[in-house]
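Good morning C.,

I know you're traveling, so I'll keep this short. The sequence:
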Amino acid sequence: MPQPPLAAQRGATLAVAVLTAMNLLNYVDRYVPSAVKDLFKAELHLTDAETSYPLTAFVLVYMLASPVFGSLSERWPRKVVIATGVALWSLATAAAAFATGFWTFLCARALVGVGEAAYATISPSLLSDFYPPERRNRILTLFYVAIPVGAAIGFAAGGLLGQHYGWRVAFLACGLPGLAAAAAVLAVKDPGRGTFDDDKGAAPPSWPAAIRTLAANRKYVFAVGGYVLVTFASGALADWFPTYLARLRGMDLAEAGSIVGTATVIGGLGGTVAGGLLADRLGKLTRNPYFALSGLSMAVAAGLSVVALQVSGKAAVMAAMIAAQFCLWCYNGPINAILVNCVPSSLRARAFSLSILSIHLFGDAISPPIVGKIADATGSLSLGIALVPVTLGAGAVVWLIGWRRLAP
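The tokens, ready to paste straight into the viewer:
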């Protein structure tokens, strides 16, 4: 395939850099509350379940707003929609610092979901328009590397700032930098939809037609089905593991946040990169290599998460978490590459918005409060967080079935 003009290559590089930085900030803001959970719980007089409801509110708004922004991206310039959303989520993150009780805190976190929906729905399809199908897995792998890095910064910075300066300062410090990213995305030049696809310029289908088409697409259904289960598990783990370490392993918030953050950035960064590279190489050995890599790595992650929940001592917890996170994050590039490549370009924004709706509605919108309710009802956080390895294993099974039973 001939190389695109130099200006187009530079435009693609700028888009990857800006959108990846934005993805990093996305996950910094998302996980700050988990790092300072017990701090705002005490000051705002909340129960365990109530500390997770703001995350649920965020996810519910995020998933419900995603289809709306999927439609808006077809009527308005995509970079303008993204910039508006990023500015909104950054201000909403900072606004949580001024919460006076449960409802004001919940409302601030819910507004974060509106802003993130604008960004997360549109960015993968925008990036895919800069590159041909055979390069998208690696580009999306780079894009999704920002997730573990951002999550790690959120855990570590949130825990450190919360420990020394209070949870309100943590929200302010982590939220406001997003305004710079919102301005930067306006410099990205949109290449147009379907630049490297056969249906370039095709009109998007109506929502009923899109849903029928996606429901009949077995690759899409298996990819999203496993994604739902993995998101359920990862949402519960991210929201509760720092608190689990503080309560059941005797660590303070800074130590717990540092361990989770370090394990996430080392294991998540390594796993995301390794998963993207290995999935392409598996293409020479088996059919559906993206499903194969994702399913096999998730099965190992399920076993390692059991170990991480059972061991004690900082070194043992850190080692187990790094190994578990490495395997847990391997799916990021491959599964999202499946989602991009298995649908026509005219359907991508709606495919991603429906995927976001599904993985959050049945995934991390419900898993943190379920863990909290089990902890409140039984007095055992260990019992609630045991759902993590079970649902990771179920997600692995779905992707492994897709590997063996779907046509290449």
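Safe travels,
E.
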